[in-house]
């Protein structure tokens, strides 16, 4: 939505109008869209998932940081599986101020929707694409770690998970090393920061715990510490 405001302002900035007409139009566009954004933020949310962090963790954290009104719902599984979109979770149910309801599934789609809505992705398309690129790269580590946590914890899978995570560290440590704030973007928490915490927590509950460490990735660990000390993150409820 922030991108919509900027795009419309750029459009009118390129046109010629007499007197103060263009200035007034720009102001009205900004006020109208800003009001619409605030109206959209009045929504309440239900996250349908299991009583564990998993694929709902990032969305829960973003909603908590944004100060949104949200709650968990733990459907009986697999009894309620046929009632879910695509028969899987998480599912986000948004109840809007006008009484309408929006249902969304697929964890990464839900995350991007909430990230865009509450400013965890920037309005600039290039900057947003860069941050989404970081998250997309993190998915390799998530999937490799999932194999040893939920499938088969054998030597081959541990090797793959370790190599994938070390490659991830090799690529992301320099990004954070260049950041004066310690975050992936600007001076506040953004989507890839939260996803990084998710990957870190996931790795620490697996047999490759310790792959993230102060020696190999001091800047990543610095960010992890910042996030873990944030009360709005540490207080996120994953099981009630």
Automatic annotation (TrEMBL):
Lineage per the UniProt record: Eukaryota, Fungi, Fungi incertae sedis, Zoopagomycota, Kickxellomycotina
Positions of the GST N-terminal domain: 43-122
One of the GO BP terms on file: glutathione metabolic process
Protein name per UniProt: GST N-terminal domain-containing protein
Domain GST C-terminal: start-end pairs: 124-240
GO molecular function: glutathione transferase activity
Pfam families, alphabetized: GST_C_3, GST_N
PROSITE patterns for this protein: GST_CTER (PS50405), GST_NTER (PS50404)
Origin species: Smittium angustum
Highest taxon, organism lineage: Eukaryota
């Amino acid at each position: 939505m922030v991108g919509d405001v900027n795009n419309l302002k750029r459009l009118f900035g390129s046109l010629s109008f007499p007197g103060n007409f263009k200035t007034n139009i720009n102001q009205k566009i900004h006020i109208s869209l800003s009001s619409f954004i605030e109206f959209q933020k009045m929504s309440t949310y239900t996250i349908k998932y299991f009583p564990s962090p998993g694929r709902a963790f990032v969305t829960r954290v973003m909603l908590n940081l944004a100060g949104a009104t949200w709650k968990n719902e733990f459907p009986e599984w697999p009894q309620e599986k046929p009632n879910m979109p695509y028969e899987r979770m998480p599912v986000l149910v948004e109840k809007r101020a006008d009484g309408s309801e929006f249902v969304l599934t697929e964890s990464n789609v839900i995350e991007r929707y909430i990230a865009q809505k509450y400013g965890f992705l920037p309005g600039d398309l290039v900057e947003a694409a860069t941050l989404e690129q970081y998250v997309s790269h993190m998915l390799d580590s998530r999937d490799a770690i999932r194999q040893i946590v939920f499938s088969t914890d054998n030597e081959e899978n541990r090797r793959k998970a370790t190599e994938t995570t070390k490659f991830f560290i090799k690529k992301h440590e320099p990004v954070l090393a260049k950041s004066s704030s310690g975050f992936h973007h600007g001076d506040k928490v953004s989507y890839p920061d939260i996803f990084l915490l998710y990957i870190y927590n996931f790795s620490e509950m697996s047999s490759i715990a310790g792959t993230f460490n102060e020696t190999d990735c001091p800047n990543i660990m610095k960010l992890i510490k910042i996030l873990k000390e944030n009360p709005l993150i540490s207080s996120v409820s994953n099981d009630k």
